[in-house]
Amino acid sequence: MSTDTEQDPDDELRERITNFLRRNFPQIQMHGGSAAIQDLNREEGSVTIQLGGACSGCGISPMTIQAIKTRMTKEIPEIDQVNAMTGMGGQEGMAGGAEGGMSPSFPGEMGEETDDDEGPQAPF
Is this prediction's pTM over 0.85? Predict the structure, then answer.
């Protein structure tokens, strides 16, 4: 029989991940963004994080995702793979493991190679 004082191991791990995000990445919330656990698979050692709010469309989201992935796998031994999405059409950010992920994009970059390498155009 289960009692209210016993905590499910998945709930405990979910709480540790949430606290990790709050402690290590306060800038997400300070800049109007959010981070939520979408999926947690303790057996596989994987977690999927959804970055939302101001993180969607933010130019440094890919770097934030990479930092989350690197730090979380070091600090939380049960997690081997971190997948993160920014909410931009469901596209994945820097994913952990062999899946790869999308590369950081820069304003004006269309994803196609062009002959002229002048960089992005100024908005004025």
Answer: no
